[in-house]
Amino acid sequence: MGRKWNNIKEKKAAKDKNTSRIYAKFGREIYVAAKQGEPDPELNQSLKFVLERAKTYNVPKHIIDRAIEKAKGGADENYDELRYEGFGPNGTMLIVDTLTNNVNRTASDVRAAFGKNGGNMGVNGSVAYMFDATAVIGIEGKTADEALEILMEEDIDVRDIIEEDDVAIVYAEPDQFHAVQQAFKNAGIEDFTVAELTMLAQNDVPLPDDAKEQFEKLIDTLEDLEDVQQVYHNVDLGE
């Protein structure tokens, strides 16, 4: 699964360069999670997951606190979680997850992003069947064997563990996310290189340089949209 890790690294690197944008997206996601349940992460698994992700992106505490306080204050902003599927240049596949308070605006913006960058929208299910929901957790300073030993001690069986750039990357079932993290925390590991629930393509595809340039523009256009939270795809951007 090394190529899949390449895509995750590329995604994190791109987001790390756009801190204001990613902070705003996290603020919205934290607000929604806190409003849908208890504003306490120990009592709200969805909120706990978002905060774990936010930590890997170094989201400032004041942004987190402001979003949670907004939810506590009974703000009447309501957001719908919507997923769009589509095709990019050379038949590439994309999944776009959004949080929106205006469905018509979001649908129009996402459709325009596809249309202006060599792609087109698909119907529900046209792409998602080629992706697997996956928990991905990375820790520095441990080998794959050492990570496996920690998980075995907690009787946790995962899909795969790889090792790259002094990082052990664990691929697990989505419902194992917290268990894997807790196992590492029990072993004294508090910082995670990556902590994501993502959609991984079953097969990554390469693109020629001209198509890759157009594809990357499509990704950038989608991720620049205010309502878009995540974009998943099946292109190996690490090549």
TrEMBL record:
Compartment(s) of residence: Cytoplasm
Protein origin, superkingdom: Bacteria
One Pfam family, short name: TACO1_YebC_N
GO terms, biological process: regulation of DNA-templated transcription
GO cellular component annotations of the record: cytosol
GO terms, molecular function: DNA binding
Span of domain TACO1/YebC-like N-terminal: 3-74
Main location: cytoplasm
Coiled-coil region list: none
Keyword Cytoplasm carried by entry: yes
Keyword vocabulary terms for this entry: Cytoplasm, DNA-binding, Transcription, Transcription regulation
Annotated ranges, domain TACO1/YebC-like second and third: 79-235
InterPro entries with a match to the protein in the record: Integrase-like_N, TACO1_YebC-like_2nd/3rd_dom, TACO1_YebC_N, Transcrip_reg_TACO1-like, Transcrip_reg_TACO1-like_dom3, Transcrip_reg_TACO1_YeeN, YebC-like
HAMAP family named among the record's database cross-references: Transcrip_reg_TACO1, Transcrip_reg_TACO1_YeeN
Family to which the UniProt record says this protein belongs: Belongs to the TACO1 family. YeeN subfamily.
Protein name: Probable transcriptional regulatory protein FCL54_11245
Source species: Exobacillus caeni
